[in-house]
């Protein structure tokens, strides 16, 4: 279904479950009794107890091809939070797209309280081009909150904020490392908002980075609008990372439990996430070809040799040392290094000696928790 831009005259279309989602439709028999309200997104009205895919037009290509942002809406029979899940805001960060697919196929979702709005591909331009950016080489996630008459990115950000973000009460934004860089599964949230921090703790990724949002990001706009938001960073651009995907699916379900959107179940003891208030990249002081000795999740002490960089045309070789102690939460996977290149992202944590064990324990818990459902094609509707 395609929407026209909203106007005061336009009549919302009452959404009838269409053939694409027929199998997922929840019966509406009891909906009238509780008098729940329909949920409007774009020009579509989604009835309580149903789910739909809503296409919202965001512009045209010069080929006259219309581009939409598609949103899955799962509208529960009972009122509750409106949780927005976004992925591929950077068009080449595709782990989140798979997280959305697995999440939407979980049978539990059909009996949720509140509303789930899932946008698996926010930057459709970049996704088609397998690029982080928009066609004008702008970064959509530096264009928020945007403006109605600004650049392409600014207009998209403005429309997304106005038509989707503002309709939601909580947000989880899914990202990966940039191209050739992988991230240890981690959640970022501002420490100024208690609800965001609670969501971050509930998500239960191996580590939580308390960090203020950057200018121009959707997270910053949500913070300014008072909408609690967390950002999940895991894996590498243009790659699927199975562990990152499983931690992501379980994390979203954990947050939905903590918000009261899913029925609570007795859960096994879980290991709490590590916390970090400070992280920074170790950069290359020389150009050359690198040999890396450390991977994601490993502990490093100040002075440890993390890599060597050598010249292919001389005996020149230089070591790269950790300038402070911490856990490696991001790494460059490409050994071809220009001066100043980011090599290792290290986070300071208070319980450094126990940190590797904590990360392993959380990974094991994810593997043991509903492995079939989190793993993809088993146990789904
Ligand atoms: Zn990103």
Structural description of this entry:
- It is a single chain.
- The chain has 381 residues and is of the alpha/beta class.
- Helix content is 22%, strand content 31%.
- The protein contains 8 helices and 20 strands.
- It has helices spanning 95-104, 124-129, 152-163, 194-203, 218-225, 242-258, 352-368, 371-374, and strands spanning 13-15, 39-41, 44-46, 50-60, 66-75, 78-87, 113-119, 170-175, 181-189, 207-210, 229-236, 274-276, 278-283, 288-292, 299-300, 305-310, 317-321, 326-332, 336-337, 342-348.
- Strands 4, 5, 6, 7, 8, 9, 10, 11, 12, 13, 15, 18 and 20 form a 13-stranded mixed beta sheet that branches. Strands 17-16-14-19 form a 4-stranded antiparallel beta sheet, with no helix packed on it.
- β6, α1 and β7 form a beta-alpha-beta unit.
- α1 packs across α6 (242-258) and α4 crosses α6.
- Residues 90, 93, 175 line the site of zinc ion.
- The site of zinc ion (ZN) has 3 residues, from loops.
Number of beta strands = 20
Instruction: Give the strand content.
Output: 25-35%
Q: Rg to the nearest angstrom?
A: 22 Å
Q: What overall form do the CA principal axes indicate?
A: globular
Looking at this protein, list some descriptive labels.
globular; binds zinc ion; 13-stranded mixed sheet; alpha/beta; four-stranded antiparallel sheet; 381 residues; disordered N terminus
Which SSEs are present, and which pair or pack?
Elements: E1 13-15, E2 39-41, E3 44-46, E4 50-60, E5 66-75, E6 78-87, H1 95-104, E7 113-119, H2 124-129, H3 152-163, E8 170-175, E9 181-189, H4 194-203, E10 207-210, H5 218-225, E11 229-236, H6 242-258, E12 274-276, E13 278-283, E14 288-292, E15 299-300, E16 305-310, E17 317-321, E18 326-332, E19 336-337, E20 342-348, H7 352-368, H8 371-374
Parallel strand pairs: 1-3, 6-7, 6-8, 8-11, 9-10, 10-12
Antiparallel strand pairs: 2-3, 4-5, 5-7, 9-11, 9-18, 13-20, 14-16, 14-19, 15-18, 16-17, 18-20
Bound molecules: zinc ion.
């Amino acid at each position: 279904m395609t929407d026209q831009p909203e106007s005061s005259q336009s009549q919302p279309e009452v959404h009838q479950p269409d053939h694409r989602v027929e199998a997922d439709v929840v019966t509406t028999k009891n909906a009238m009794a509780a008098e729940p309200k329909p949920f409007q997104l774009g020009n579509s009205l989604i009835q309580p107890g149903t789910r739909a895919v809503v296409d919202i037009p965001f512009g045209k290509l010069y080929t006259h091809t219309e581009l939409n942002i598609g949103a899955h809406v799962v509208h529960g029979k009972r009122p509750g939070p409106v949780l927005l899940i976004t992925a591929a805001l950077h068009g080449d960060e595709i782990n989140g797209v798979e997280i959305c697919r697995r999440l939407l196929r979980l049978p539990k979702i059909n009996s949720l309280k509140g509303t789930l709005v899932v946008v698996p591909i926010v930057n459709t331009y970049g996704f088609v081009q397998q690029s982080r950016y928009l066609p004008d080489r702008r970064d959509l996630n530096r264009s928020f909150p945007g403006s109605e008459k600004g650049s392409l990115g600014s207009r998209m950000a403005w429309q997304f904020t106005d038509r989707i973000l503002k309709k939601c009460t909580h947000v989880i934004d899914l990202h990966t490392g940039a191209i050739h860089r992988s991230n240890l599964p981690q959640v970022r949230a501002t420490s100024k908002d208690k609800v965001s921090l609670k969501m971050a703790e509930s998500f239960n990724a191996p580590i939580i980075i308390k960090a203020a949002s950057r200018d121009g990001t959707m997270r910053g706009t949500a913070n300014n609008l008072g909408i609690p938001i967390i950002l999940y960073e895991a894996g590498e651009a243009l790659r699927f990372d199975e562990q990152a995907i499983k931690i992501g699916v379980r994390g979203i379900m954990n947050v939905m439990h903590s918000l009261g959107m899913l029925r609570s179940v007795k859960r096994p003891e879980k290991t709490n996430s590590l916390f970090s208030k400070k992280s920074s990249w170790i950069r290359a002081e020389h150009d050359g070809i690198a040999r890396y000795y450390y991977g994601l999740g490993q502990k490093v002490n100040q002075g440890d040799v993390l890599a060597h960089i050598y010249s292919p045309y001389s005996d020149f070789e230089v070591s790269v040392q950790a300038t402070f102690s911490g856990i490696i939460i991001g790494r460059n996977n490409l050994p071809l290094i220009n001066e100043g290149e980011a090599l290792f992202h290290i986070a300071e944590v208070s319980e450094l000696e126990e940190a590797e064990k904590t990360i392993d324990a959380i990974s094991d818990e994810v593997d043991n928790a509903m492995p079939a459902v989190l793993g993809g094609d088993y146990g789904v509707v």
